[in-house]
Specification:
The protein has 183 residues and is α+β, with helices and mostly antiparallel strands. It has 1 helix and 13 strands; from the N terminus they run αβββββββββββββ.
């Protein structure tokens, strides 16, 4: 009786291993076909040296989707906005604008997020920096910025960080993660 069960157990074990391997390959292929993360970095000196890093999806659905954006190395004494904007030139050359959702002070579109250690968490779509100038936020992105500005057609777009309204002329905290949109 024990001998008869061994082959069946071996078959089950082999079937489970084959299923797990197939699932792993399918998962890997699925991940390769979906939005993959892209990272942009920048080193700035603003009293101290900051190693800025932002990671966001490199592709997104043209009709719109929510994406997670993470960052590290930011100066926690300087507030930033995270959003999808038209970009012109390298990081820090020109202010990224226009941005999806504009100034979403009511927090209704979810298209931008304000990170500020003084006011973060007191208003919709705001938060404070974590240790080491880190953040992880979710924003809504779509190809149509409004006003005839279409990412990939009339303007180049990126998920960006930029200095908040307390220091809006400061281009040191501009980090661009280029994004393309799938139709």
């Amino acid at each position: 009786m024990r001998a008869a069960l061994l082959p069946r157990a071996a078959v089950r074990l082999t079937a489970r291993a084959a299923f797990a391997a197939t699932a792993a390959v399918a998962l890997a292929l699925g991940m390769a076909g979906s939005a993959s993360a892209a990272t942009a970095t920048r080193t700035v000196t603003d009293g101290a040296t900051y190693q800025l890093s932002v990671t966001a999806p490199g592709t997104a659905a043209a009709a719109g989707e929510n994406v997670t954006v993470t960052g590290s190395g930011f100066n926690t004494a300087k507030g930033i906005y995270v959003g999808l904007c038209a970009v012109n030139g390298p990081q820090g050359a020109d202010k990224p604008t226009p941005c999806l959702g504009g100034s979403d002070q009511a927090g209704t579109t979810g298209a931008s997020h304000w990170i500020n250690n003084t006011f973060g968490g007191t208003l919709p779509n705001t938060s404070r920096f974590g240790a080491g100038g880190t953040f992880s936020v979710t924003i809504h992105v779509k190809a149509d910025l409004g006003g005839g500005q279409i990412c990939g057609e009339t303007v180049e777009c990126a998920v960006v960080t930029r200095a908040d309204h307390f220091n809006s002329a400061n281009r040191k905290y501009d980090v661009h993660v280029p994004v393309t949109f799938n139709q």
